[in-house]
Every structure is written in C-alpha cells, then in structure tokens.
C-alpha cells in the first residue's frame, strides 16, 4: 500500500505549515488505510489549522473511534468544538446582518450595525461547554501530565460556573507548570468571584 508514502508527504507539507497542501496527501493516506487512527488525526489537525472545523471534528472523531486512548485526539476535539461553535456564532450574526440589510434595502434605510445581535443560544452554549469538558477530561484522564488539556479543562469549568472543578484543575495546572502566569491570574479571578 502507498498509504505510508502519502502520509510522509503530508508530514513534509505539515512541517512547512502548508496545511491545505498536506490535507490532500493525508486524505489519500486515509482512503488507502481507513483504519489508521494517526492518519485521521493528522488530517483532522490540518483541517483544524486550516479553520475547516466541521471536517476537523469528523476526522478527529474517526481517530478516537479507531483509537480511544489517544489524549491528543481528545484535546484536539475539545478545542475544535470551541472553534466550531465560535465560527457558527459569527456566521449566524453575519446572516442576521445580511437579513437586516435586505429588509432595510427595501425601505431605503441604512442598517444599524451597532444594534446588539441575538446572543448565542444559552442551551447550545452550555452543551458546547459540556462537550468540551468531556473531551478535555478524557485527555487529562489518559495523560495526567498533559498541561494544555488540564488548563483548558479548568478554563471550561470556569466558564460553566463549576468553580470547585475549575479550582481543582487550575491547581493541578500549577503543579504541572508553576511559572505559567495565566493560570495564576485565572485562579485569582476565580477567588474574587
């Protein structure tokens, strides 16, 4: 099979930060060897870095389904869920502006771009955080010294209002990286709330 050769070519472009070019080679590798979790994870990572979050999440989920003990896959899933939700929120706001512009065009009135837009659906926002927390928690459970996943889990719990869990994972992050200023600031913010 030529799958490893395509994977290596993808890695060459990946290392050059040419993620869209790498995608083509990783896709060929996954087509030839669709049971290789690493190929799907690298493809998902390239989609993520190319800001194609829907495809990234699909490939990352495929990788997790093939190899459920990969902490990095769960970490990538967590950050991709967040980015996809933010992108969807921006798209919805943009569509709302377009809709308003179309209706204003008919009356020859300018659209009010300073008017507050519809806020992110709180139920959906909560579900996004629940999904992120689950992904980061899986990463931390699989690799307890994974500082980035631990810190992102703390941040997610903090946003959810789960202060005890947030404190627990901020303190754990400090154990892993004592000189990380941002975690100390977030922990202080938590204590002042």
Number of strands: 0
Largest sheet: none
Distance between the termini: 58 Å
Poorly predicted runs are none
The helix fraction, in percent, is over 70%
Net shape = globular
The chain-level structural class is mainly alpha
pLDDT averaged over residues? 91
Beta-strand content:
under 5%
Gyration radius, rounded: 20 Å
The ordered H/E elements are HHHHHHHHH
Number of helices: 9
Oligomer status: single chain
Textual characterization of the structure:
The chain is mainly alpha-helical. The chain has helices at 3-15, 19-32, 37-49, 53-66, 71-107, 122-142, 147-160, 163-176, 181-192. It starts with a helix and ends with a helix. 32% of the residues are buried.
Question: How would you concisely characterize the structure shown here?
Answer:
This protein is mostly helical and 193 residues long. The protein has helices spanning 3-15, 19-32, 37-49, 53-66, 71-107, 122-142, 147-160, 163-176, 181-192.
Q: What's the arrangement of secondary structure elements?
A:
Layout lengths: L2 H13 L3 H14 L4 H13 L3 H14 L4 H37 L14 H21 L4 H14 L2 H14 L4 H12 L1
Attribute tags:
single chain; 193 residues; mainly alpha; 9 helices
